[in-house]
Design goal:
Layout (H helix, E strand, L loop, with lengths): L2 H6 L3 E5 L3 H12 L3 E6 L10 E4 L1 H9 L3 H5 L7 E6 L5 E3 L15 E4 H15 L4 E3 L3 E7 L2 E6 L4 E4 L1 E4 L6 H7 L5 E13 L11 E6 L3 E10 L2 E11 L14 H7 L5 H9 L3 E8 L11 E3 L2 H4 L8 H15 L7 H25 L1 H4 L7 H11 L2 H12 L9
Parallel strand pairs: 1-2, 1-11, 2-7, 4-13, 11-17
Antiparallel strand pairs: 3-6, 4-5, 8-9, 9-10, 12-15, 12-16, 13-14, 14-15
Helix pairs in contact: 2-5, 2-10, 3-10, 10-11
Length: 406
């Protein structure tokens, strides 16, 4: 039997987008014997984004895929996770390490987004070398005569059993299924960058995951590495009446960043000054979708539940989506529309709750009580007490996409 004949007996999934969701889904499907083709608009995988946290719920997916050790090999794990006062840097430990007290593992894996993407991509092409097709822009998807069709710019059409939109917050797949989803500005702008440790003061080399909090802004910082060179990755959010474009690859100006963080501790200002590049964008939200699937087409990740970064869950819930969807599609004789309904039922409630809880964190990170240290200390002790942190994170971290009922 030829390879083509063997492939013809397998379910075939078409994926739009080679980001975290698309690549995670592809690895999971290929490992389960399901054929995959990915269509990516970029001409190659590009290093976009700074660092990210993989928490225990995302780590369970990587472990199931056999990739956790590869990611841990590039991890720079924090010795502590702290909340810090914006003016002085005074810190308060919030790391939950007591397995008797917490219902979940609070360990963090800290890596560059591009490095995680590389690990996932290499896993895909090891299973199917020609799985990823670059330089092809998606314009929509549809179901015709029980076949899923991915529509490409220029009029080309790719057919499969299922099409999955992993094409981000501006998803053309989502638009083709459910129409426009207006974005609402949250009242905050985000900054991000990477500062080489070699350019920074010695205190920046401490193995800390830090969130500096103030009355109208906060900054999360942690160490990451690329080819043996170490950096501090930072993501900063600041209240602003003026919104920027909703794109996390828009360049920002240093002068604007320093103005947004005027009066902040010099360690934070140094990160902006020494960053290789600065990016600035507006944070937007969309109303939750009641369904992600229609016919033989569905969605994963930011395409269906883009969220604010305040809980650090974006990449983790995206990997959850991907693995649960792969499990739903695993039964070759099963009905595809039924499988996609099970996927919706398993995922929509959790992601909508995460999305809402993440947005609500903005009012905890930014508080008038953080203006002065005298009011900030009791505020931090209340909002980041061990039980408060467990209440905030345990339900998120204890989720297991590899065993959850589908």
């Amino acid at each position: 039997m030829t390879d083509k004949e063997q492939r013809g007996q397998r379910r075939h999934v078409i994926i739009a987008g080679a980001g975290m969701g698309g690549l995670t889904l592809a690895v999971a499907l290929l490992q389960k014997g399901i054929d995959v083709d990915i269509y990516e608009q970029s001409s190659e995988l590009r290093e976009v984004g700074a660092g990210l946290w993989i928490s225990a719920n995302g780590g369970k997916v990587l472990e199931a895929l056999g990739l956790k050790k590869a990611v841990e090999a590039i991890n720079l794990p924090p010795q502590d996770r702290v909340v810090r006062f914006w003016k002085t840097g005074e810190e308060h430990s919030v790391y939950n390490r007591d397995p008797q007290a917490s219902k979940a593992d609070h360990t963090l894996i800290q890596v560059l987004r591009a490095e995680l993407q590389r690990v996932l991509y290499e896993a895909v092409i090891a299973l199917k070398p020609d799985a990823v097709h670059f330089g092809l822009r998606t314009v929509g998807a549809e179901t015709v005569d029980d076949r899923a069709r991915l529509l490409l710019e220029g009029g080309a059409v790719v057919e499969g059993d299922v099409v999955v939109g992993c094409d981000g917050a501006h998803s053309r797949i989502r638009q083709s299924l459910f129409g426009q989803a207006p974005a609402r500005y949250t009242g905050a702008n985000a900054w991000r960058g990477l500062a080489p440790m070699s350019r920074l003061k010695p205190q920046h080399r401490r193995a800390l995951a830090s969130t500096w909090i103030g009355p109208t802004a906060h900054v999360t910082t942690y160490p990451v590495q690329r080819d043996g060179e170490e950096f501090v990755s930072f993501s900063a959010q600041v209240d602003s009446e003026n919104w920027q474009t909703e794109s996390w690859s828009e360049r920002g100006e240093l002068a604007d960043a320093l103005k947004d963080f005027e009066g902040w501790h010099q360690d934070i200002l140094d990160l902006f000054v020494q960053s290789e590049n600065l990016f600035r964008w507006g944070l937007f939200v969309r109303d939750p979708l009641e369904a992600w699937s229609k016919g033989h087409v569905t969605l994963v990740g930011d395409a269906c539940h883009s969220m604010t970064p305040y809980l650090g869950m974006g990449v983790n819930v995206t990997m959850e989506d991907a693995y649960v969807l792969a499990r739903c599609l695993e039964e070759p004789s099963g009905n595809i529309e039924g499988a996609l309904r099970r996927y919706d039922d398993a995922r929509i409630g959790r992601t909508n709750r995460t999305k809402a809880k993440s947005l609500a964190m903005l009012n905890i990170f930014h508080s008038p009580e953080l203006e002065r240290i005298e009011t900030a200390r009791p505020y931090i002790q209340k909002e980041w007490a061990p039980q408060a942190v467990r209440d905030r994170y345990d339900w998120l971290l204890s989720y297991d996409a590899t065993t959850v009922e589908i």
